[in-house]
Specification:
This protein is α+β, with helices and mostly antiparallel strands and 182 residues long. It has one domain. The chain has helices at residues 11-17, 20-28, 42-52, 66-69, 76-81, 100-111, 115-119, 151-156; strands at residues 36-38, 58-60, 84-86, 89-91, 124-131, 134-142. The strands form three sheets. The chain has a two-stranded parallel sheet. It has a two-stranded antiparallel sheet with strand order 3-4. The two termini are 24 Å apart.
């Protein structure tokens, strides 16, 4: 959601996280803890968390291998090899020849960095269980497997125009026209 070199959190990840406050308390009532993890330093995460008005736990894995271990962050060497391991397969996320400038301009506009830096961070969700002092990795999903976490998708999928996705349709909640009035 927020790489170390980003100037702001990813808008689509932020749209997912916008719903976390509402259900984190219900999860806690069932002995489940929701915690977002991003590679940006904690001070950047805390400032963005304040901007977004979020209260759910958000940890920084800056300087650790956590995101790499779970396949959502990739090294420069993996990127340059062309086939990163992501979403239970290998993908080449480098822009097609001639698309670099457009891709860089797009990511510069949304997170303040180039395409490579942006895409070396990927979305993912993992579940863990703690039993007798041992932590077990119980679940992971990536890419479109995260759609179920987008609370707004459940509503949009039932709306007359559906998701109505055209261009860059997602925004941070404070970036929609008239957001100040809401």
């Amino acid at each position: 959601m927020f790489g170390p070199d980003y100037t702001a959190g990813c808008p689509s990840c932020s749209a997912i996280a916008a719903g976390f406050n509402g259900f984190a308390v219900h999860l806690a009532g069932h002995d489940v803890t929701l915690c977002a993890v991003s590679r940006a330093p904690l001070a950047k995460l805390a400032a963005y968390k304040r901007r977004m008005g979020w209260s759910f736990p958000w940890a920084s894995s800056h300087g650790s291998d956590f995101n790499f271990d779970f396949g959502v962050a990739h090294t420069k060497q993996e990127w340059e090899a062309g086939a990163i391991a992501y979403n239970f397969g290998a993908e080449d996320l480098r822009p097609a020849a001639g698309d670099r400038e457009t891709s860089d301009a797009f990511t510069q506009s949304i997170v303040g960095t180039d395409w490579e830096t942006y895409r070396r961070e990927g979305p993912g969700m993992s579940g863990f269980a703690l039993e007798d002092g041992t932590v077990y990795h119980t679940y992971s999903t990536y890419s479109r497997g995260l759609d179920i976490l987008w609370g707004m998708y459940q509503w949009l999928d039932r709306a007359p125009l559906g998701r109505n996705e055209a261009g860059m349709w997602w925004r941070r909640h404070d970036e929609y026209d008239g957001a100040e009035a809401r």
